[in-house]
Amino acid sequence: MIVITGATGTVGRPLLHTLAAQGAKLTAVARHPAGLPDGVRPFAADLADLETVRPALDGADTLFLLLAGDLLVDAGDPDALLKVVAAAGVRRVVLLSSQGARTRPDAPSHARLKAYEDAVTRTDLDWTLLRPGGFATNSYAWAPSVRAERLVAAPFGDVALPVVVPADITAVAAAVLTEPGHTGRAYELTGPTAVSPREQAAALADALGEPVRFVELNRAEAKAAMTRFMPEPVAEGTLSILGEPTDDERRVSPDIADVLGRPARSYAEWAAANVDAFR
Ligand SMILES: NC(=O)c1ccc[n+]([C@@H]2O[C@H](COP(=O)([O-])OP(=O)(O)OC[C@H]3O[C@@H](n4cnc5c(N)ncnc54)[C@H](OP(=O)(O)O)[C@@H]3O)[C@@H](O)[C@H]2O)c1
């Protein structure tokens, strides 16, 4: 039995579908699990409340662990959670972390994920860490203004980063959860090339076959928009990566291609495949 947390989100939901199609026995954990593939056991639990997590792990040998929301800053206890996981008889854990947990381990935006990484790697479970960079799907935040007025408004218009297509994260997670050879590895998951917000707007324009205007926001304007849907320290940390990336954060990683045996998908491919959300 594989337990998937974050099971209704950007990474977890397609991961459930991929593994269900392979015939895996699955439990889907979220606070409000709904709309799951046939045959998947839904389990309502809050990862910040270990009493609700314990029964979700009954019969599990493998855990895909994804933290979201307040768990990224101030809720939950990483070591206590991993004790519950090990006591339940789980033998393998795959943690969906973030590139920032390696590149900015002390930043308030990423220190918590670093603590989860440390808790996982201190166990004697078979563990693997997945550290994605920024998701291509963050562009869905632009969908309303692209639909309404063919406009992308974003900060740091010319800073290019190798954003990753979440379907590749899902594909790597599925491989790591079901194939041997990934124990003790930490994979950095990026796209195949660095692409700036202005270039992302141009890729959306190409996909739409119509011009899309780009307007650069200042940091305060961008932060005001981001804190509507993420904790303030996570917004701050994300803006620091978007505006002042380290050399490591700009670098393309070979890990998706190494695990999947095919190149990582590009932002332009993602835009073409998901253009309907922007029409
Ligand atoms: N977006 C990026 O650019 C980026 C880059 C690098 C790393 N990441 C990492 O990716 C992760 C987010 O993944 P995602 O985009 O797939 O998430 P998402 O789409 O925001 O979905 C979050 C999932 O977690 C569940 N959840 C939230 N709080 C919970 C709690 N307290 N207890 C149990 N379940 C909870 C949600 O369901 P309920 O609401 O029903 O509980 C949902 O299933 C984060 O760890 C983030 O650091 C993101």
UniProtKB/TrEMBL annotation:
InterPro entries: Ergot_Alk_Oxidoreductase, NAD(P)-bd_dom, NAD(P)-bd_dom_sf. Pfam families: NAD_binding_10. Residues 6-179 form the NAD(P)-binding domain. This is NAD(P)H-binding protein. The lineage of its organism: Bacteria, Bacillati, Actinomycetota, Actinomycetes, Cryptosporangiales.
